[in-house]
Amino acid sequence: MNDPLDFTDKVVLVTGSSRGIGAEMIKAFGARNAKCVVNYIVDPAGENKKGAEAVAKELKEPLVIECNVTDPPQVEAMMKQIQDRHGGLDVLINNAGIINDRTIKKTSLAEFEAVVRVNLGGTFNVTKAASQILRQNGRVINLSSVSGQMGFFGQANYSSSKAGIIGLTKVSARELARQNITVNAIAPGFIDIGMSKDLPPEIAQNFIKLVPLGRMGDVREIVNAALFLASPMASYITGHVLNVNGGVYMG
Length: 251
Description:
Blueprint: E1 11-14, H1 20-31, E2 35-40, H2 47-56, E3 63-66, H3 72-86, E4 89-94, H4 109-130, E5 134-143, H5 146-150, H6 156-176, E6 182-188, H7 201-208, H8 219-230, E7 241-244
Parallel strand pairs: 1-2, 1-4, 2-3, 4-5, 5-6, 6-7
Helix pairs in contact: 1-8, 3-4, 4-6
């Protein structure tokens, strides 16, 4: 019997895969024989490039691409590189995102727009460009958040961006269905890596009290959700939001 989680010859792009959840995702696909594309954005300290290079060392013949997902020409150039190297794309995971928490009273319009531009605008830009090279039976997986479903205090920009991703996921699912491409979203809760990991201990404990399962999620639980949605096992699932949050949100 064929292993449904064997991604041999499948080309997988994870945006923002130099660290955090994105890095763990692309490494998981690499471990299952995918042809991996690692994406990062330049930062002043050069940490993202170092992270991308470290991730690439764990992959077989990866394609590492610097690209700012908010810049359409850069995104188009990234897709051309993938097309030239691999002839197309099979799995796109829109993971790139930022956070900048403040109350509405303290958030400027520029701060609000900056988060929405990366999280929602970036997802739109990459999905639009990728639709030109995604193969039949392809997969698009967007990273939303429990924050986009519940709206947390101090996250007007982040919650709005992640709620928007859910709407974009559903529209994309309808439009790309004609190519037999499924589009789904994962909505993580409080995970032990990335943005949640950087919370002060007392705040983290307050969040954990909201979780029926009584703990933060393990990054592997998000990775496993992505592997499932990208696999043949999820071939009849599209326009869906998969909640991986320990029961915080049960809608």
